[in-house]
Amino acid sequence: MVRTWLAALAAVVLLVAGEAPAAPHAKQDVTIAMDDGVSIAATLYLPDGAPPTDGWPALVFMHGFGGDRSSMNALVEAAGFAAGQYAVLTFDARGHGASGGLVSVAGPREIADVRAVRDWLAARPDVSDTKIGAWGISYGGGMILNSLAAGVPWAAVVGVETWSDLYSGLMPQGLVKSGLVAALASSIPEHRRDPSMVAVQAAALAGNAAAVQPWAAERSSLSKLGSVTTPVFIAQGRRDFLFGIDQGSRAFARLQGPKALYVGLHGHAPSTFPAADTPYLLTRVVAWFDCHLRGAGCDGAQRTVYVAPETFTGQVVRRGSLPPVSPAFVSFPGVTTFARVGKTVRTSAPLRRAIEIFGTPTVRTSVAASGGWSRLVAVLTARTPQGREIVVSAGGVPTRPGAQKVTIQLVNQATFLPRGSRLTLTLASSSTAQSPSNLLYLDLPMPQSARARVGTAVLKLPALRTPITR
């Protein structure tokens, strides 16, 4: 998996440079001691020649959950970050790679590590102590935003496919994305998990939102970003079922300094990183750091939104704000009663026009739960006129005994549906009822006596007024 990622990254980066980028001038592995005695393993790159009078501007790169700095080293070297005007540091997060300690998921201990790593770099005589930026993907991006909210004095940052509100990312509406959480947890060996991580996973799978919320709040930046004036570039994926577009757009709305939001093809499943538009994204990232760390090539824009079409061919739409949407409604009539392993599947008539969904679709329906039935999961799929099946989005809510009306918010994303597509809504106790390969919401235990009666469902789709994809 890692080898495939590195090969794909090298291929797309070559599209940026047009040829193999220059090799780094100097590279050394270092160890940085934390105040609790834990050692953090890192790699330092320094440009060739004498540093500027005030030291080299610098960049810190942070990897994803369960990974290590090898992926960041590949990015740094392939994209040429370490061959020009920057000192660069990559490091294995606590509990990852060759670093010591236990993983508590971007908590206060990890943020203290980030601060210490940044301060270690700033203390070097050949590095500027005021021009240090940071780039992070997924877990690394979350740590960057959290550290920024905690007052770590970054000069400019870039967060890619990451979160600003961890609770809404992992347990929206009080129902945990159990398949994704289980997959994330499995990427960390048991002996490297902090007890708090183990406890909160158990609480989330048990539906104990009261235990998860304070834990997630301590690891979220959103509520604190209103006072942040640091230049921030956020890149979210159009179709990322772990951290949707809203994780970036809500942060973007609160930030007070220079800011950019890029909505592209990269992301967690069902998307990938790298993606077709990654070369273009990297050019924007380089320009961001060059502007805010070196004062080079600034275009004067203080608030920019980029949106890449699904059919990316080298161009994106650039705006001052998110593109406007209007609601489209689809009704799925019927009344269906099913048991724990049952489901209801309802399909619409063909769409009369193309729709580019952009935002959070919602499903409103009534459900009567009995016998211990505890949740309702909705999966929206589409079949195009060409026969292609697309999992558009999914979501779920806990249910209580008896009759109730529910509104299920699906993952915030962007999906283009051509004219003539048919929508299918699957309602059940898990996403695996739609397909055994759809592991977003697992079929967690419920009593054999569990029953649900579901009435007419109304789907509300936020549709771009002017589609970006053609």
CATH superfamily of the largest domain: Alpha/Beta hydrolase fold, catalytic domain
What would you call the shape? globular
Question: What structural class results from the helix and strand content?
Answer: alpha/beta
Kindly state the number of beta strands.
22
Level of helix content? 10-25%
Describe the structure.
The protein has 470 residues and is an alpha/beta fold. The protein has two domains: 2-165 and 220-319, 3-Layer(aba) Sandwich (Rossmann fold); 325-464, Galactose-binding domain-like (Jelly Rolls), CATH 2.60.120. It is built from ten helices and 22 strands. It has helices at residues 2-17, 69-79, 108-122, 139-149, 166-170, 178-186, 195-205, 209-217, 245-254, 278-294, and strands at 26-33, 39-46, 56-62, 87-91, 127-137, 156-160, 232-237, 259-264, 303-307, 317-319, 325-332, 336-339, 343-347, 355-359, 362-370, 375-383, 389-398, 402-409, 413-417, 422-428, 451-454, 457-464. Strands 1-2-4-3-5-6-7-8-9-10 form a ten-stranded mixed beta sheet, sandwiched between helices. Strands 11, 12, 15, 18, 21 and 22 form a six-stranded antiparallel beta sheet that branches. It has a four-stranded antiparallel beta sheet with strand order 13-20-16-17, with no helix packed on it. Strand 1 (26-33) and strand 2 (39-46) form a beta hairpin. Helix 7 crosses helix 8 (209-217). It is globular. The two termini are 32 Å apart. Residues 1-5 have low confidence and may be disordered.
